[in-house]
UniProtKB/TrEMBL annotation:
Residue segments, region Disordered: 200-221
Pfam family of the protein (one): Gluconate_2-dh3
Protein name: Gluconate 2-dehydrogenase
Comp. bias intervals (Basic and acidic residues): 211-221
């Protein structure tokens, strides 16, 4: 037994910034272009209208709350940019309409549910009210006619969670937070046995070892 407290997730990789890899052999030019495009995504809607954008932004904030000690990942902007590109997954549940239609209809239906229950739009609800509606969506308990043939529970599982969490963890700020070094091409990995770390990978701090991990993580690789 130990009286040491576990390290919070946000502090597990102190000092680690995956963008230090940008000009190292860890990333090739293709990776750099992809990362740069994600960093340069516009922070305003390019596909959704203003009402849908506000609802999406509020939804993203509840699904992936972010730490206050770093600039937030622009999750709504990343989802909207994906819709603008009309980028699919290569597969789709036959019960769902195409991705663009599903998002437009689902966001409008969330606003309709909020108006029916609280007489305001979804983004105007407080956090508890938003969470209550999200929970009902997850359970398939939303029934407003605005959903039409879009099953709320399926929209939550296959679009809300899939697209919002996927957008969040596609961003370098999230990679730094979880100690992920981005694509392993062209460098790859060498030490493939449990408990061993390649020198260009992030160091996870142990209780009492935060300063040592920070020094290692702040080195450019």
């Amino acid at each position: 037994m130990t009286d040491q407290k576990p390290i919070p997730r946000a502090a597990r990789y102190p000092g680690y910034d995956v963008l230090r890899k940008r000009r190292t052999p860890s990333w090739d030019e293709t990776t750099r272009r992809v990362v740069d495009a994600r960093l340069a995504v516009r922070r305003e809607p390019t596909f959704l209208d203003e009402a849908a954008w506000r609802t999406l932004d509020a939804l993203c904030r509840r699904v992936v709350p972010q730490p206050a000690d770093r600039p937030p990942v622009p999750v709504a902007a990343l989802v909207d940019a994906r819709l603008q590109r009309d980028q699919g997954d290569g597969y789709r549940d036959a019960r769902l309409p195409p991705t663009r239609v599903a998002w437009q209809r689902g966001l409008a239906a969330l606003d309709a549910e909020a108006q029916a229950r609280y007489n305001v739009l979804f983004h105007q609800l407080d956090c508890g009210e938003q969470d209550a509606l999200i929970t009902k969506m997850q359970k398939g308990e939303l029934i407003d006619g605005a959903w039409r043939d879009l099953p709320p529970q399926l929209f939550f599982a296959d679009r809300v969670l899939h697209d919002i969490c996927g957008a969040y963890y596609s961003h370098p700020a999230s990679w730094s937070e979880i100690g992920f070094g981005g694509p392993a091409s062209p460098r790859g990995y060498v030490r493939l046995v449990p408990g061993r770390r390649d020198p260009w990978e992030a160091v996870e701090a142990s209780p009492g070892g935060e300063d040592e991990a920070r020094k290692e993580n702040e080195r450019v690789r």
